[in-house]
Specification:
It contains twelve helices and twelve strands. With 413 residues, the chain is of the alpha/beta class. Keywords: Glycosyltransferase, Membrane, Transferase, Transmembrane, Transmembrane helix. One of its GO terms (molecular function) is glycosyltransferase activity.
Amino acid sequence: MTRKLNYSSFAKLRKSIFAINYHSVTETSPVREKEKMLMLIFVVLIALSYASLMIALKKGWSRLETPLYDYETPENRFSIVIPFRNEAENLPELLESLLLLNYPLELFEIFLVNDDSADDSEKIISEFIEKQPQFDLKVIQNSRSSNSPKKDAIKTAIEISKFDYILTTDADCKIPQNWLQSFNTEIIKSNPAMIAAPVTIEVNTPKFGTAFEALDFLSLQISGAGAFGLNRAFMANGANLCYKKEVFFNQNGFDGNSDIASGDDVFLLQKFIKQQLKVTFLKDKFVVVTTKPLNNFKKMVQQRIRWASKTSAYTSNFAKLIGIIVFIMNLAFSLSLLLGIFKLFPFPYFMILFLVKFNVDFVLLYNASQFFKQESLMRHYMISSVLHPFFSVYVAFLSLFGGYQWKGRTFKR
């Protein structure tokens, strides 16, 4: 009798639960449809915003004129500034490339600024100077006065420089032979206060990690250049940047952002633009500076955190808009893929984001790879296109909530 009662009670309970579930499903299904519609609207808005932005940057890139290669007679004088810290491994290639510069020796000087190196960097430079006494090359010590060692190094050199134009690069770079010829010609033709120029990562290995790093770098390069073409410039790279010394001093140099460790390039660019000074991007294949890949995921993350940590201090509203749209797209892409795998988000909605992002990014990156003659990188694009949003979101969150390490130093946000 007890068993029958228990079984009967269980059966009634099961029917009651089924009835409750049935009613709750039928009652909430319109709500779920409404939620799906809102999700779809959100996805479409993100996709359209992102696609519009990337298409605009592609148009900006196309608007940039590629110069004719009839160089003007050398007449402008350059002070080349290169900060270094423990770069003994990279300095020989840099110095060798400087030796090959096709420009009158009396029209440029070189400052290598030692930022507290503990390796054989100075010894390597001293040996080079002994072998090449015709070069006006000086090694000076960094004079620290702010939270930014690199800005201090550049400022230290500029204060004792004797020529009209400052040209900065990095110690892990290689310089093209007609580097100064190209800048001289651009100055004669356009007379800008600042000239930004392209930088690319040297790729000598088929490894995916290097390709991923190079593709990420290409995306930054073409986005920054495209913004110049839209007259909305906000980003430049200090590894290939030229500006008038007089204007640098008139604008008080790095004052106003000296508390931020990085940004010797972008903050100076945005300061020039704020004063309505003429800035240009030199879309010239013969002026491209190459830098070495990090080939280390941890170092790459730290470098990207260093770059991302300064974005909150940008004065450019266009730069902030780009940052917001790109971050939202990457976050939506990452979350929708993860939730879609566990059937917590409609997978077709993820596919909308994926297809839009995949295609517009491909167009941008393919154009960049053609310009830099790195089309082989596109073989890795499929995998990179899935992984890169996760990487970007990861870096963005780290840049918001923590500091970073760079060249043996720890910096707070």
